[in-house]
Amino acid sequence: MKKHWKIKSILTFLLITIFFVGCKKPDLNKMAGGTWNPNFAVPIGVADFGVYDILASKDSNDLVIINQVTGEIALNYKGEIGSVNAQTILQLNNYSQNYSLSPTDFGLSATPSFSSTIPSSNTTPINFPMNGSSTLNTVNLESGNLGIDINTSLKHNIDITLTLPDIIIGGSPATKTIQMNYSGSTPQLATSTLNLSNSTCDFTANGTASNTLRVIVDATINGSGQNIVGNENFDINFNLNNLVFENATGYFDQQSIVNSSDSILIKIFNNASTGVFNLTNPKIRLSVENSFGIPVLMDITNLKSINSVTGTTVNISNPNLNNILITAPTIMGNTSTTVIPELNQGNSSGINTLVSSTPKYFNYTVNATTNPAGPALNFIEKSSKLVVKAELELPLEGNAYDFALQDTLPFKFSTDVDIIESILFRINSSNGFPINFETNLILLDSNDVVLFDLYNTNHEVLAAAPVDGSGRVTSRANKITDIKLSKSQIALLKNATQIIITGTAATTQPATTTTVKIFDDYKLSLKLGVQTVLKQKF
Fold it and tell me: In 10 A of CB 292, how many CB atoms?
């Protein structure tokens, strides 16, 4: 039984040469095991590989999609090509404002000795600055604080109550009481903090202003018997710090919120180096999800494919990509989705060559402006986003030729092969895919020195199936391939640490003019046999 698995170990790397071009490696468990029979040709495996075995039907990026009606297969790339968060639209920066009162504001006049008690009330606005012409109406704060610093040269006891009628905490206006007791020296100093977490702020001063919070300063002067000169200072410094909004309403100006350029890697070409690969019916779908209560005008420009090998670019143009109005949801918490008409070969110049000449990148630039029609009532939440999404669908419909691929895989072969003189593998393939494949396999040791080539040049192991006028396969292509490992090659397997697999692929001939399509019912059938010659003495 141990000898049988020696044969299967050698078979493993031979199968890799056939399947490395697929999206996943073959499941060797599908190959039926045989029995050890020296110096005889025996079948060691039979398997049918369908689309689901060769291509991953789904990965983390939804790489492969299948039309459930027609069975046609497409590669599909999805991703965000632009995203703007709420903090980009609305910033509540730290702000400091000073408020000064004179003795007359407290009802005081100059006197050599003051021992009375006089109450007073004054109101001052905190004019919160905003960028450009933005205005705040209401803000629900998740967190933040109002720092209060008082400095006075009055030589008397002062009881102060600060009331902010435009900031509601727990159903009541925010208040802070501060006592300043004269101790014989000036200036008198007091510092306090008002926690604004979970508060609701009205920046309209009850509909009378904008970007404004009112503060009522109620002060009672309790005379200490000291004098009043008449020019004493009383200064309050208000510090709004670390404001984090939960949501807000207002007008948030006309802002340029997206101006980015990026690329999406078309991963099917990761291992490609040269050749022509035409997918003749590419489609691009774009959509914008907007959870800001803000309309947006957007342009998507600089759409092109880029060949990462040569740098050659192909521009894609479509009038639907200019002046795209992104609607806003009408209710806070909702999301509005704007779908841009599909880009395809019927309406977009350049798109039919999107994936020709093995381009590897899909490039784009996004520009957007908020409130294109001018002032409006906007809303925003902390979690609000504007997300531009792209979906690139590449139906497997087209042609390929002179398409060269290469991959390097780690390799380890530790089985004792001293008893084997030579091995001949026979691969009997029945290919239902309209793609032929020629390959060579090179084994290297740990010093990157070539041990041997499987063939002297690329050798066809799969013949392409014929197709009809619509590109659908009409019958399978059958081929027998013999692979012989000599005694010296088998002995070198234990020194191999890497396999370089090279290959060329082409669609059904004539590849330059024949269009083929891939359907989910295509299958590749393999029958594998082995003839072993053992050493006479071991």
Answer: 27
- Which CATH number, 2.60.120, 1.20.1070, 3.40.50, 1.20.58, labels domain 91-251? 2.60.120
Q: What is the pTM of this model?
A: 0.73
What CA–CA distances, in Å, run from 140 to 144, 181, 197, 378, 501? 11, 36, 9, 14, 62
What pLDDT, on a 0 to 100 scale, did the predictor assign at position 280?
Answer: 84
pLDDT tens by residue, 496-521: 899 887 878 889 999 888 999 989 89
- Alpha carbon distances (Å) from 54 to 26, 366, 403, 450, 507: 7, 36, 19, 29, 17
Report, as an integer, the average pLDDT of 58-80: 73
Separation of alpha carbons 402 and 161, rounded Å: 84
> Rounded distance, CA 382 to CA 433, Å?
52
Reference 363, options 284, 423, 422, 418; nearest CA is 284
Number of H helices, E strands in the chain: 4, 31
Confidence of residue 25 (pLDDT cuts 50, 70, 90): very low
Give the list of residues 6+ apart from residue 510 with CB closer than 8 angstroms, or none: none
Burial of 350 from C-beta contacts in 10 A (0-12 / 13-18 / 19+): middle
**Confidence band (pLDDT; 50, 70, 90) for 266?**
low
Q: Classify residue 442 by burial, with Cβ atoms within 10 Å: 0-12, 13-18, 19+.
A: middle
Lookup result for tokens 């089985």? 415
Torsion of Cα atoms, 522 then 527 then 528 then 529, to 10°: -170
pLDDT tens, residue by residue, 435-488: 898 888 888 999 999 998 888 788 888 899 999 999 999 999 999 988 888 888
The average pLDDT across 124-146 equals 96
Which residue type is seen at 237?
N
Domain spans of the chain, in order of start: 2-72+400-534, 91-251, 255-395
CA 505, 510, 512, 513 dihedral sign is: negative
